[in-house]
Recover the amino acids of this structure.
C-alpha cells in the first residue's frame, strides 16, 4: 500500500511518519509537498504533525488553504483513508473535513508525555484491526490539543459513532486525571461521518518500536493495510 | 486598482461565550495575586491589525469581513468584530 | 569625525583600544568602521579576556574531527558519521525578555550545528535562576522554559536533557545555556572558510531589521536591564525550520564552499570570520540586503542581529541551483557580495564605499587582556567554615530532612520542565529526560547510540572554583557513564561576572584550570564552547558557572540502563565511603548555610569508577545506575526508587560509622559515587569487578515492595516521597 | 469598596513598531495567498477584556493602566492601549 505523507512548510512530523511506515510497517511511503494537486497515486494519506506555517494565528489555520488540501478534500470525498495526526488533525478540523476545533491546552502549557487511549470505534480504516475498548499507549506532544465541540454536536458525534479515541487511565477509565489537555469528554480522536477520515492528537507514528518506548502505534497504521487488502480483493485480486 | 486609499483595520477576535478560556482564567488569577482583587473576569483574544489598499471604506469592510470569515477567526469557536479607519499612506 | 568618550562608550571601546585601532589602520576609522571594530573587539566576539586562558584546555584526541574554532566541534562516531556539538549562552537577552531571549538562544545554537552541515538531532539546556519562591523568579523561569520549549518544539528537534539550579546569586542574572547536537557524514562536514576569490556571498533567511544593534557589546556590559531595553528580538522558529531544511539540501549540490550563521554582530562578524578562516577578503554591498524596515543605515545593516539568517559562499556556476532550492523553501536569498583576495572586508552601499578594514584587524588584532587574579577574602572565609560545628541530625529528624531535600527545587522532579519540551519527536529517544542520568538517543540504521547531559554545581564553584569545575566535568561525564555510554567530548559554557575584577578573573582562571585537569585525567577533550562574562548587576556577580555538556557513545544502544531500579535486586554504592557536608544541598536547605569546602575529588578514582560502571552495564550485570549528587546518598536512593516505582530496604550503619555523623552519611555529598542495582546472581561479579578496578563497593540493600526503608532511620510509603518530590518545582 | 460600579476594559496589546512580528508576516502571506493581494502589512497582538469593579472611571483607568504595565503587556517589546466602558452589573 502506498502512503502519501503531506509536508507543509513547518511540518516536522513528516519524517517520523515516513520512518514509521517504512521501518515499522515495511510499506512504501513518500513525502508530498503542499503545492501538489494530485493525490490519486496514493492508497492512503497521512497529514503529519508539526507547526505548519508556525501554527501562527491558530494551529492549522493557514495550512488548510494550501493547494494540496483541495486534493485531500477530493480524496476524502472519494472515501480514501486519511489520517491527521496532531497538527494534521488541527488542519483537518480547520478545513472542516472533521468536526470541532482544537484549542489551547487547559494547562496553557505544551505537553509531551505518553498517554493511554481507548479505541471507541472500529469501523474506520485506521481502527479496523483493533477491538473496541482496546487500550493503546502513545506519545502526545502538543500545545493546542483541547478538543472542543458544542454540547449538541457532541451528542450527534456520540450517536453517529464519530468519537474514535478517548484518553483513559491505565485501567481504561476516561477520568479527568487521564485527560492531558482538557478535551471535552476526554476525546483524543474523531472521524468524519463516513469514517474514512480520522484525526487524533496522539502520535501513532512515534510509537513503532519498543526501543523508543513502544510500538502500539503500529496497530493504527497497520489497520489501514487490512482495508487495502480488501480493496485489492474487491478489484478481483486474490 | 487605479484609485485606492490605504486603510487600517483593527480586528478583535474572541472566544465565543461558553467556550472555556483557561488563559483568561490564568490572567485573572495572576492579576488577583498581584493585588487586583477588583478583577471579576478576563477573556483573552487576538488583536489583528491589517493595513490594506481599497478604493473606498465599503470595499475595505467587505474584504476584511471576508478575511475574518476565511482565516482570521474560526467560526466554530470564535467571534470577531472590526473597525476600519483611513491610514496615512506609506 | 570627533571621537568623544560617549561615542567610544557606545561602541564599547576604551580609549586605548581606539588608539590601537587607529595605529593598526594608519588612519581614523569612520563611524561604520568604528561600530564594526567595537562589535568584533567586544568580549563576546573577541574573547579578549578568555582567549589566552582557553588555550589551556585539552582539545585533541583520536576521536576529534573538529576542535574549537569552527561553528561547532565534531567527533567521530564510526560508520562514517560524526557527532557535532556546541553550547551557547543567551543570558542577557533572557534577563530582559525571558521567553524570546531563551527562544532565540535555541535558534542560534541550532544554526551553529547545521552551519557545519549536520542535521540537528537533540537539544539540551542548562538553566540558573534565583529562589523559585520569588514571583519574579517564577516569571523568569516560566518565560525561559516556555521560550526554549516553543522554539525547539516548533523546529521539531527533541529537547532531551539539561540541568537547573536555583541560587540567590542568580536573581538579577539568570543563566540560559542551550546545547545542540547534530549528526553528519564525516566527509560532508563543511567549514566556515571563505575560499576562492570570485565566489559569491549569499545571504538567506529573514529580512534584516534594527534588531539587537550592539547585541554583542550589550552582552559584554553589566546590567543589561537598565541600559539596554528595546533590543529584544522575536524569534521565528518556523522560518528557521525552512532555513534548516534548505541549507542542508543546498549543501548536497556541492556548490557551497562555506556556511556561517549570523549571530552576535551580524553581518560584520559572519563575514569577517569566514574571510579570516579562509585567509581571504570579502566585499559586500549593503544595498543588496533585504530589509524589514525602511531607512536603515549601512551601520545598522552591518551590525543588525536579526535572527534566522545564514551567510553562504557559493561557486558562481552553482548559484542558480542554490537559489532555486531556497525558492522552493520560500526563502529570500540574495547575492550580497563576493570573496576577494586582498584580505580586506570592504563594505559598499550601492557601489559607494562605506567601510574598508583589514579582516585580520577585526579578528586577530583584537586586544588581549591578562588581569590581576586574586581570590576574594569573603569566599576564603566562607570556605573555611567547618560544617562539623552544626549539630548532627538526630535519627528522628532524618525522615523530615529527606522530605525537605526531595522537595528542594534543586532536587525535585524536573518533569514540570521537560514535559513541556517535545522529547519524542524524530523517534530516536531511547532514554527520555527523567529516566536516566543522561539522555540516550539511537542513530537509525546503526548499532551505536549517543548520550547527552549538562551539569555544573554552582555552589561548589562559588566556594572553590577549580575544584567546582573539576566536579562539573566529573559529574557530567559520570551521568553519561551511568546510562552506559563512553564520554566522547565536551562543550563548555563559561558563565562568569566581570573579568576586570580580580576576584572574578581568579574564578575564571581557576575554573579553566580545573576543567583542563579533569578533562586530561578523564581523557575527554573539549571540542567547542562559549564564554559569557559580565553576568553581574550593581557589582554583584553570579557564582562562577562553567557548564559542562558531554556527549557520549554507546557502542550498542540496546545496552543502556536507566536510573530507576528495575524490579528486584541488590543495590551497591560504588566510590568513596566518606562524604562532605561543605557546600551541600543539605547545609543550604536544612541550615541555611552556603559555606564550607566542597567535597574533594580524586580524578583517578573517578576515572576507574566510571570505567567499571560502563563495563558492568555493558556486560548486562547492572540493571540501573544513578550518580549521587545534590542531596547525597539517601536522595539518590530515593530517586532510583521513585523513578523505578519500586521500594527497597537499605542499611547504612557502616557508612554512618565511617562518616562519624548521621547527616554526613545520609546527605553528605561526594564525587565519584554511583549506586548500581545488580542483576540477581551477579553480585559476586560486581564485587570482583570493583576489586579489579580498585573501586570501593558497599552493599546497601535490596529493592522490592512499596515502602522506602532505611533500617532504623526511615520507614515510609514510597508514595509519600513521590508526593513531595513530584511538585517541588511547582509554585503558584 | 462600598460604592462601586462594574466596568469593562478592552486592552489592545501589540508589538512595538520595529519589533519583528513573524506571526504578522505569516498571516500577511497567508492572506495574500488566499487572493487578498491588497494586504500590505499585518501585525498580530492580544485583545484582553477585563471586567472589574471600580468606584469611578478614573479609578478604573488607573488600575487598568497599572495592570498593563505589570502583567498584560511586556513594555520591553509591547505597547498597549485600552478603552473602558460601563458594564452591565452581573
Ligand atoms: N532544563 C532541563 N531540560 C531538560 N531536561 C532537564 C532539564 N533539567 C534537568 N533535566 C533532566 O531531568 C533529569 C534530572 O536532572 P538532574 O537533576 O540534573 O540530574 P543529576 O542530578 O543526576 O545530574 C535528567 O534526565 C535531566 O536531563
Ligand atoms: Mg539532581
Amino acid at each position: 500500500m502506498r502512503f502519501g505523507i503531506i509536508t507543509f512548510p513547518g511540518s516536522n512530523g513528516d519524517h517520523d511518519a515516513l520512518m514509521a511506515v517504512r521501518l515499522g510497517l515495511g510499506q512504501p511511503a513518500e513525502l508530498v509537498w503542499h503545492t501538489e494537486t494530485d493525490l490519486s497515486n496514493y492508497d492512503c494519506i497521512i497529514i503529519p504533525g508539526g507547526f505548519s506555517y508556525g501554527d501562527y494565528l491558530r494551529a492549522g489555520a493557514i495550512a488548510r488553504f494550501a493547494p494540496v488540501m483541495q486534493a485531500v478534500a477530493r480524496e476524502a470525498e472519494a472515501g480514501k483513508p486519511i489520517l491527521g495526526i496532531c497538527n494534521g488533525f488541527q488542519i483537518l478540523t480547520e478545513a472542516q473535513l472533521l468536526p470541532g476545533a482544537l484549542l489551547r491546552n487547559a494547562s496553557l502549557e505544551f505537553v509531551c508525555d505518553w498517554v493511554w487511549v481507548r479505541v471507541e470505534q472500529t469501523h474506520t480504516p485506521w481502527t479496523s484491526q483493533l477491538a473496541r475498548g482496546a487500550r493503546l499507549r502513545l506519545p502526545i506532544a502538543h500545545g493546542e490539543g483541547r478538543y472542543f465541540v458544542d454540547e449538541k454536536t457532541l451528542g450527534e458525534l456520540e450517536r453517529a459513532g464519530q468519537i474514535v479515541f478517548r484518553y483513559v487511565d491505565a485501567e481504561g477509565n476516561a477520568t479527568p486525571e487521564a485527560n492531558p489537555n482538557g478535551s471535552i469528554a476526554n476525546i483524543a480522536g474523531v472521524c468524519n461521518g463516513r469514517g474514512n477520515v480520522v484525526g487524533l492528537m496522539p502520535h501513532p507514528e512515534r510509537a513503532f518500536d519498543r526501543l523508543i518506548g513502544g510500538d502500539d502505534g503500529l496497530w493504527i497504521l497497520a489497520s489501514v493495510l487490512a482495508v487495502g487488502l480488501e480493496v485489492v480483493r474487491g478489484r478481483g485480486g486474490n | 486598482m487605479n484609485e485606492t486609499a490605504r486603510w487600517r483595520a483593527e480586528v478583535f477576535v474572541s472566544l465565543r461565550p461558553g467556550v472555556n478560556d483557561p488563559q483568561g482564567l490564568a490572567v485573572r488569577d495572576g492579576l488577583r495575586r498581584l493585588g487586583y482583587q477588583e478583577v471579576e473576569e478576563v477573556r483573552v483574544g487576538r488583536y489583528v491589525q491589517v493595513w490594506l489598499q481599497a478604493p473606498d471604506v465599503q470595499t475595505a469592510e467587505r474584504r476584511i469581513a471576508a478575511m475574518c470569515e476565511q482565516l482570521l477567526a474560526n467560526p466554530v469557536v470564535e467571534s470577531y468584530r472590526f473597525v476600519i479607519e483611513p491610514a496615512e499612506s506609506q | 569625525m570627533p571621537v568623544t568618550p560617549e561615542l567610544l562608550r557606545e561602541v564599547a571601546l576604551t580609549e586605548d583600544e581606539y588608539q590601537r585601532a587607529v595605529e593598526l589602520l594608519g588612519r581614523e576609522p569612520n563611524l561604520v568602521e568604528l561600530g564594526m571594530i567595537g562589535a568584533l573587539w567586544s568580549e563576546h566576539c573577541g574573547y579578549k579576556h578568555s582567549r589566552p586562558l582557553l588555550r589551556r584546555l585539552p582539545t585533541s584526541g583520536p576521536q576529534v574531527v573538529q576542535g574549537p574554532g569552527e561553528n561547532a566541534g565534531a567527533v567521530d562516531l564510526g560508520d562514517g558519521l560524526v557527532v557535532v556539538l556546541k553550547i551557547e549562552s543567551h543570558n542577557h537577552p533572557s534577563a530582559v525578555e525571558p521567553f524570546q531571549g531563551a527562544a532565540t538562544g535555541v535558534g542560534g545554537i541550532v544554526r551553529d550545528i547545521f552551519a557545519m552541515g549536520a542535521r540537528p538531532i537533540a537539544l539540551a539546556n542548562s538553566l540558573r535562576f534565583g529562589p523559585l519562591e520569588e514571583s519574579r523568579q517564577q516569571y523568569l523561569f516560566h518565560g525561559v522554559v516556555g521560550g526554549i520549549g516553543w522554539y525547539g518544539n516548533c523546529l521539531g528537534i527533541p529537547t532531551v536533557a539539561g540541568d537547573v539550579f536555583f541560587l540567590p546569586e542568580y536573581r538579577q542574572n539568570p543563566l540560559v545555556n542551550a546545547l545542540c547536537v547534530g549528526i553528519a557524514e564525516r566527509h560532508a562536514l563543511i567549514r566556515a572558510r571563505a575560499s576562492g576569490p570570485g565566489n559569491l556571498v549569499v545571504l538567506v533567511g529573514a529580512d534584516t531589521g534594527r534588531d539587537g544593534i550592539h547585541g554583542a557589546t550589550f552582552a559584554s556590559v553589566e546590567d543589561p536591564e537598565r541600559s539596554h531595553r528595546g533590543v529584544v528580538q522575536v524569534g521565528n522558529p518556523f522560518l528557521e525550520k525552512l532555513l534548516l531544511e534548505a541549507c542542508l539540501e543546498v549543501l548536497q549540490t556541492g556548490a557551497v564552499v562555506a556556511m556561517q550563521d549570523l549571530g552576535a554582530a551580524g553581518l560584520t562578524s559572519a563575514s569577517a570570520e569566514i574571510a579570516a578562516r579562509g585567509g581571504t577578503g570579502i566585499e559586500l554591498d549593503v544595498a543588496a540586503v533585504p530589509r524589514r524596515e525602511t531607512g536603515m543605515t549601512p551601520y545598522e545593516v552591518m551590525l543588525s542581529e536579526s535572527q534566522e539568517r545564514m551567510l553562504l559562499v557559493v561557486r558562481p556556476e552553482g548559484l542558480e541551483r542554490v537559489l532555486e532550492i531556497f525558492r522552493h523553501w520560500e526563502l529570500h536569498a540574495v547575492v550580497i557580495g563576493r570573496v576577494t583576495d586582498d584580505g580586506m572586508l570592504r563594505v559598499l552601499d550601492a557601489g559607494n564605499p562605506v567601510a574598508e578594514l583589514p579582516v585580520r584587524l577585526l579578528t586577530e588584532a583584537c586586544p588581549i587582556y591578562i588581569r590581576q587574579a586574586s581570590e576574594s577574602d569573603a569566599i576564603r572565609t566562607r570556605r573555611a567554615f567547618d560544617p562539623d560545628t552544626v549539630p548532627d541530625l538526630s535519627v528522628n529528624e532524618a525522615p523530615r530532612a529527606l522530605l525537605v531535600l526531595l522537595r528542594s527545587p534543586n532536587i525535585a522532579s524536573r518533569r514540570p520542565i521537560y514535559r513541556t519540551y517535545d522529547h519524542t519527536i524524530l523517534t530516536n529517544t531511547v532514554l527520555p529526560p527523567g529516566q536516566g542520568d543522561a539522555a540516550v538517543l539511537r542513530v537509525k540504521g546503526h548499532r551505536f547510540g549517543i548520550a547527552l547531559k549538562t551539569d555544573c554545581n554552582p555552589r561548589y564553584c562559588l566556594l572553590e572554583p577549580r575544584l567546582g569545575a573539576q566536579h562539573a566535568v566529573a559529574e557530567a561525564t559520570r551521568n553519561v557513564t551511568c546510562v552506559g555510554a563512553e564520554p566522547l567530548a565536551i562543550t563548555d559554557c563559561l558563565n562568569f561576572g566581570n573579568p576586570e575584577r580580580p576576584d572574578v578573573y581568579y574564578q575564571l582562571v581557576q575554573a579553566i584550570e580545573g576543567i583542563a585537569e579533569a578533562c586530561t585525567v578523564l581523557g575527554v577533550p573539549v571540542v567547542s564552547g562559549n564564554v559569557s562574562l559580565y553576568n553581574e548587576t550593581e557589582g554583584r556577580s553570579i557564582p562562577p558557572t562553567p557548564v559542562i555538556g558531554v556527549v557520549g557513545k554507546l557502542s550498542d544502544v540496546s545496552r543502556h540502563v536507566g536510573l530507576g531500579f528495575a524490579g528486584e535486586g541488590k543495590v551497591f554504592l560504588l566510590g568513596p565511603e566518606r562524604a562532605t557536608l561543605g557546600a551541600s544541598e543539605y547545609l543550604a536547605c536544612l541550615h541555611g548555610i552556603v559555606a564550607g569546602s566542597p567535597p574533594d575529588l580524586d580524578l583517578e578514582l573517578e576515572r576507574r569508577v566510571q570505567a567499571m560502571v560502563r563495563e558492568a552495564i555493558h556486560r548486562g550485570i547492572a540493571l540501573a545506575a544513578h550518580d549521587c549528587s545534590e542531596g547525597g546518598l539517601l536522595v539518590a536512593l530515593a530517586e532510583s526508587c521513585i523513578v523505578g516505582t519500586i521500594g527497597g530496604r537499605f542499611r547504612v550503619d557502616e557508612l554512618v560509622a565511617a562518616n562519624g555523623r548521621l547527616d554526613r552519611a545520609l546527605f553528605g555529598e561526594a564525587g565519584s559515587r554511583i549506586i548500581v542495582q545488580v542483576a540477581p546472581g551477579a553480585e559476586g561479579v560486581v564485587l570482583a569487578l570493583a576489586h579489579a578496578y580498585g573501586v570501593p563497593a558497599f552493599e546497601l540493600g535490596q529493592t522490592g515492595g512499596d515502602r522506602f526503608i532505611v533500617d532504623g532511620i526511615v520507614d515510609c510509603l514510597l508514595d509519600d516521597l513521590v508526593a513531595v518530590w513530584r511538585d517541588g518545582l511547582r509554585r503558584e
In short: Chain A has a mean pLDDT of 94.
